[in-house]
Each structure stands twice: as C-alpha cells, then as structure tokens.
Amino acid sequence: MAVQSLRAIRRKIRAVRNLQKIMTAMKMVAAARLRRVQDRVISGKPYTEKMRWLVETLAPHLPAVEHPLLQVRPVQKRGLVVITGDKGLCGAYNNNIIRAAQNFMSQDGTAPFLLYCIGRKGYDFFSRRGYQVARHRPQLPVTASFEQFKAVAEDIVQWFLSGEVDEVFVVYGEFVNALVQRPKIVSLLPIRTDGTGGEGRGAGETEREYIFEPKAPELLSLLLPRYVEHQVYHILLESLASENAARMNAMSQAADNAEELIKQLTLQANKIRQWNITKELLEITTAVEAMRRAKD
Fold first, then answer.
1. 104-128: per-residue pLDDT in tens?
2. Distance in Å from the first CA to the final CA of the chain
3. Which residue ranges form the domains of the chain, and what is each CATH number?
4. Annotation marks residue 90 as catalytic
5. Rounded to an integer, what distance in angstroms lies between the CA atom of residue 198 and that of residue 102?
6. Ramachandran assignment for 72, one of left (phi > 0), alpha (psi -120 to 50 degrees), beta (any other)
7. Given the residues 37, 55, 58, 90, the one annotated as active site
8. Of 54, 219, 83, 75, which Cα lies nearest the Cα of 152?
C-alpha cells in the first residue's frame, strides 16, 4: 500500500511539474505581449491626450455648429461596450469587468441597456443570462494594426448614429501598472465638453478667441471622428495591457504555488520512502534474530 502511495505521489509530482512548466511559459508569453502593448500605449498616449484637449477646448466655442457626434438626444436606450478577453487564466480580470458592468446597469433602470461585447468571456456570460447583446466581436490581438482598431471605433460610431442607442458607455480594464488593473467606465458618445480644455484654465488666463481654417463645421467633421477613433484605440490597448498583466501575475502566482506543492509532495514521498526503508530493516533484523534463536 505504501509503495502504491509512493508511486501515486511521484505521478502527482511529475504532473505538477509539467503544469509548472506550462504556467512559466504562459507567464513569459504574457510578459512579452505586455511589453509590446505597453510600448504602444505609452507612445500613443500624448497624441490621444492632445486630441482630447483640442476637442474639449474648441467645441465650447462652437455653439452654433451641430455635429451628430455632439448631439444629445432623449435617452431611450443606452449602449454599453463591455471589453473582456477571449481566454481565461488571468485571475479575476474578466470577472471584475463583468461585475462592474452589472453594477453599472443596475444603478439606473430608467432606460434599458444594449450590450456591445468585445471578447468571448463577456459575450458568453451576458448572452447566457438573457441580457440584450446587440453586437459582438472577438478580441483584437496584440499585433492588430491601427486599421483594425479603427474598424471597431467606426462600428461603435455607426451604432450610435443609427439611433439604435442614444448614449454609449465603455467598461474596460484600466492599466495602472503591471501589478494594478482596475475596471473603469467612461462615457464615449455623445462627445461631451466641459469648456475647460482638459487641462483647465489658469487663474489669470483670459478667454481666447479662435479663427478656424477651414471652417468650423468642416473642421469638426474631420476632428471628431478621429477623436473617437483614438479614444477607442487607447481603450482597447489599455484592455490588452491589463489582461496580459493580469495573466502574467496569475501565472507567476500559480507557478509559485506549484513549486510549493512540489516541495510538500516531495517531503511526503521522502517520508514514505523512509518508512519503507525502516520497515525493511525491521523485517531483516527480525528474520536474523529468528534464525539466531533457531540455531540456539
């Protein structure tokens, strides 16, 4: 029985060690992807922030200009873009985003929500529970080009312009750093401006007047769609960075736990092996003593 237990423990050790190798490999892959996405996030962030500043600065000075992306309509239906991953093994990352989306939808029941799910995890969860999932697309890979991100933004804009929804919010994983990722909900459409220009106006700064060339409507028709494209681009990149950081941390912790389990199983196997050796020595000693007494 002890021999069988020893064999079973050794099989467990081999299985856990193989799993540890897989976890370590997944951790390295996630780390490589995180570095690639993080570089894109950092390089594109100044442009995205400057674009936001430009829109928030100029739009309040154009009260007579109407643009579909600025149009505030009576809210009959609200759209929520839920960005999750296609795969698991990333800790509580997907569950946290899904829970944040559920909490957001339960706060106000005046207008129903339509969901736009990006990523299989969110789509599977909401579609199986009777939520109204209007649109769905798989998660974009780390190597996706800007044109692929742009296609997602155009689809969301068309979702709003068609009148299917009157507001669009986005819930995604905000990338704080490699150790911290948290769900975040932002309002995407219609584009809202507060007149502060993003960075705010200094205490002694005077009101500025702007001369538009080309004319303001033509400028906005070019600027606002590009603004939405880069907001969506930045959000999707942050989601990818957050997911890979969460997977890297989860696999690192799992590999450490596997190492601890291997140590415990090895100690248990050594105890059984020691007990077997002691038992054999006792049997040999007993046999020798019995033979000695028989001769006497």
1. 998 867 788 999 999 999 999 999 9
2. 36
3. 27-200+207-250 (3.40.1380.10)
4. yes
5. 29
6. beta
7. 90
8. 83
